[in-house]
């Protein structure tokens, strides 16, 4: 037992990536190095969050409004800059696309040799930051295709099947990093005494069905009737329980571990809903599929959606196979 515990303590993230690919190919080395940089970003953000209440100027708004029309938090900017700094020194990533930046960000010193693009949401659920509740970071890695000569990163406007790796970091009581490189889903917990992410759950599988439904019911009268009918169904049947934390990563993490469904439908004012495809829904869909779950817009697999712009949004229904299928059956009026 002691030996097993020691082995596990030595399974750091970068070692795990290499083990997964079972080769020391250039791609394996690159992905391992990229995941290592992401873990550094996660540690920096985690450290800042842990002490945010004590650090002058860490909390609150900047006074700016971002491209999405949302008020920007100081922590959003800090976390966005952390990813940029971390990847400036990587040599591997030439472009970054984030929720906080209207345009794709190029790192000239890494271009054109760095053939990877990082798509990310630096702090997701930032309304939770000021009240010391869980937030997350979401990331996705794609290989650059073509030479992007016009600097418009049009090759990013492809489906989620182009993702090489994806994951999230949950800043909760522990900081947990969950990732997949297409070989199952694995979770690592930050051990602050070591400053390392150590393997804590390997080959996570989501249950086929689960009790949780996670949705902002305050939008009830903003939804289509089909979504209201699904919620009425849940209310009338035993065995369901509602959980909604206002931060996607935490809500999804619960569903990944315990089963159920997360819903962010379109509303009358926003038919595409709120969540962005490239750095929110698609990476989470990639993870869910790897864990045996699913993600849908209600009419199409999230992984099949081709966005028309970097910040495109889609409705999102994600979680256990059976629960996602049930929501779809209401949307497609099969019940
Ligand atoms: P953000 O990236 O601007 O923080 O917005 C995304 C967040 C998700 O984490 C969360 O699931 C959702 O917005 C909550 O939205 P609402 O307050 O409309 O329920
Ligand atoms: Mg977000």
From TrEMBL:
Pfam families: FBPase, FBPase_C. It is an enzyme of class 3 (hydrolase). Pathway: Carbohydrate biosynthesis; Calvin cycle. Mg(2+) 2 binds at residues 121, 124, 280. It is found in: Cytoplasm. Its EC number is 3.1.3.11. Residues 12-202 form the Fructose-1-6-bisphosphatase class I N-terminal domain. The keyword Cytoplasm applies. It catalyses: beta-D-fructose 1,6-bisphosphate + H2O = beta-D-fructose 6-phosphate + phosphate. GO terms for molecular function: fructose 1,6-bisphosphate 1-phosphatase activity; magnesium ion binding. Keywords: Calvin cycle, Carbohydrate metabolism, Cytoplasm, Hydrolase, Magnesium, Metal-binding. Binds 2 magnesium ions per subunit. SUPFAM superfamilies: Carbohydrate phosphatase. Substrate binds at residues 124-127, 216, 244, 274. Its cofactor is Mg(2+). GO terms for cellular component: cytosol. Residues 206-331 form the Fructose-1-6-bisphosphatase class 1 C-terminal domain. Its main location: cytoplasm. Mg(2+) 1 binds at residues 99, 121, 123. The keyword Lyase does not apply. One of its GO terms (biological process) is sucrose biosynthetic process. Belongs to the FBPase class 1 family. Homotetramer. This is Fructose-1,6-bisphosphatase class 1. It comes from Merismopedia glauca CCAP 1448/3. The lineage of its organism: Bacteria, Bacillati, Cyanobacteriota, Cyanophyceae, Synechococcales.
């Amino acid at each position: 037992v002691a030996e097993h515990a020691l082995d596990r303590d030595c399974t750091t993230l970068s070692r795990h990536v290499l083990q997964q690919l079972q080769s020391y190919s250039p791609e394996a080395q690159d992905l391992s190095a990229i995941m290592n940089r992401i873990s550094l970003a996660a540690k920096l953000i985690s450290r800042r969050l842990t002490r945010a209440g004590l650090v002058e100027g860490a909390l609150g708004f900047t006074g700016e409004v971002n491209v999405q029309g949302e008020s920007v938090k100081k922590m959003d900017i800090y976390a966005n800059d952390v990813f940029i700094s971390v990847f400036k020194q990587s040599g591997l990533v030439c472009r970054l696309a984030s929720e906080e930046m209207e345009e794709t960000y190029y790192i000239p010193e890494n271009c054109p040799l760095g053939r990877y693009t990082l798509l990310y949401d630096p702090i997701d659920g930032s309304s939770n930051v000021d009240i010391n509740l869980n937030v997350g970071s979401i990331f996705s890695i794609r290989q650059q295709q073509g030479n992007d000569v016009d600097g418009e990163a049009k090759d990013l406007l492809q489906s989620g099947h182009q993702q090489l790796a994806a994951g999230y970091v949950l800043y909760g009581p522990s900081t947990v990093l969950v990732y997949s490189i297409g070989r199952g889903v694995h979770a690592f917990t930050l051990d602050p005494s070591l400053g390392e992410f150590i393997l804590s759950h390997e080959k996570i599988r989501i249950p086929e069905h689960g009790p949780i439904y996670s949705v902002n019911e305050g939008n009830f009268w903003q939804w289509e009737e089909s979504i209201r009918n699904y919620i009425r169904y849940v209310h009338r049947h035993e065995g369901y329980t509602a959980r909604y934390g206002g931060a996607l990563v935490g809500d999804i993490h619960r569903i990944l571990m315990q089963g159920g469904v997360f819903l962010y439908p379109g509303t009358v004012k926003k038919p595409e809903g709120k969540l962005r495809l490239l750095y929110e829904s698609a990476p989470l869909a990639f993870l869910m599929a790897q864990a045996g779950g699913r993600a849908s817009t209600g009419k199409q697999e999230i992984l099949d959606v081709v966005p028309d712009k970097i910040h495109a949004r889609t409705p999102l229904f994600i979680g256990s196979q059976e629960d996602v299928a049930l929501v779809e059956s209401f949307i497609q009026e099969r019940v």
